[in-house]
Amino acid sequence: MIPGAGHVLVKRPFRGLFLFLSITCMFVLGVAMQGKLYSPNAGEILNILGFVGDLGAGLLYIVARALDYGHGAVQIATADYGTKFAVVAGLLNFIAAIDAHNIGIGRKS
């Protein structure tokens, strides 16, 4: 739910802070570029995958949706880049969580 928190829990605070800053910056930049945030629906597969990517940002996604950001149609070129920034931020958070889990169980040092 909070980017980088897993690394802080496994006593890697600098890596956790770096992940928190990078994921948060990517997501905020995506929203600032008027990127679209996907909502849950059972429609097209690409929309579902976009929603899963956005949801990976955790609380960032929940707060952005609560503040009604990212609901407009993509009308400018930077908004399309913003959409991708937000999705990639969520996917990076998934990868960071898996990395923290691997460190926690001793598979990775």
Topology:
Layout: H1 5-9, H2 13-32, H3 45-55, H4 59-66, H5 77-104
Helix pairs in contact: 2-5, 3-5
Helix-residue proportion: 55-70%
Summarize model confidence as the mean pLDDT: 91
SSE order, as H and E?
Answer: HHHHH
Q: Judging from the principal axes of the Cα atoms, what is the shape?
A: elongated
- What is the helix tally? 5
Oligomer: single chain
Poorly predicted spans: none
Terminal CA distance reads 23 Å
Relative strand content: under 5%
| Whole-angstrom Rg | 15 Å
Q: Structural class, from secondary structure content? A: mainly alpha
Biggest sheet architecture: none
Counted beta strands:
0
Count of domain modules: 1
Keywords: Membrane, Transmembrane, Transmembrane helix
Transmembrane segments: 14-33, 45-64, 84-105
Domain DUF6677: 1-108
InterPro entries: DUF6677
Features:
single chain; 109 residues
Describe the structure.
66% of the residues lie in helices and 0% in strands. It has helices at residues 5-9, 13-32, 45-55, 59-66, 77-104. Helix 2 (13-32) runs antiparallel to helix 5 (77-104) and helix 3 (45-55) packs across helix 5. It is elongated, with a radius of gyration of 15 Å. The model has no long low-confidence stretch (mean pLDDT 91). This is DUF6677 domain-containing protein. Residues 1-108 form the DUF6677 domain.
